[in-house]
Amino acid sequence: MTRLHDYPDGQFRDALGTVIGRLSLVFAAVLLGSILTGLTATRSFGGLIVGVVGLPGISAASLFCGIGIFVLPLVLVFAIMFARSEWPLWLPVICTLLMWWNLHGTIRWTVYDSPSARQRQRLMDEIQEKLDGADRQNPRKP
After folding, report:
1. Whole-angstrom distance between the N-terminal and C-terminal Cα of the chain?
2. Which of 46, 83, 101, 142 could link 22 by a cystine bridge, Cβ 3.0 to 4.6 Å?
3. Distances (CA, A) of 137 to 27, 126, 128, 140, 141
């Protein structure tokens, strides 16, 4: 029950103390970890959108290209234990860090570091070089 002297945040703490509130808190922590991943892995603010929209796809890819085979079940077990055991409300920070670590490695590998990503970058560099050479030979007239 909420006490009168807990007015500014007592209702929120009581709401987060329920099972739905605790599971929502873990989901928010996972989403925050994904957003941070988009920001740090792509090294741009556009990655924030990648982190939010790509969460299901990147999480599925992390099962095969990252350490998601260990992290995702660990986050699920944590969510169940967090809801049942009434642990302190700051502990979902662990989920944020785990998801950041998992998804950051997945994005870095699939987009920048894998052999196919390097080959794609070499191909794009060659195409850009050919286009630059064609522009030098045939300058555009205004």
Report:
1. 74
2. 83
3. 56, 17, 14, 10, 12
Distance from C-alpha of 53 to C-alpha of 28, rounded to nearest angstrom: 14
Q: What kind and span of H or E run contains 139?
A: none
> What's the confidence (pLDDT) of residue 97?
95
For residues 88 and 28, give the distance between their C-alpha atoms in angstroms, rounded to a whole number: 16
Mean per-residue pLDDT pooled into runs of 10, the chain (142 residues) = 65 85 95 93 88 89 88 95 92 95 90 87 92 79 63
Structure tokens at 80: 């169940």
- Alpha-carbon distance of 109 to 63, in angstroms, equals 13
pLDDT of residue 110: 86
Output the pLDDT for position 99: 93
CA-based torsion, 66, 68, 69, 71: positive or negative: positive
62 φ, ψ to 5°? -70, -20
What is the CA 14 to chain-centroid distance, rounded?
Answer: 28
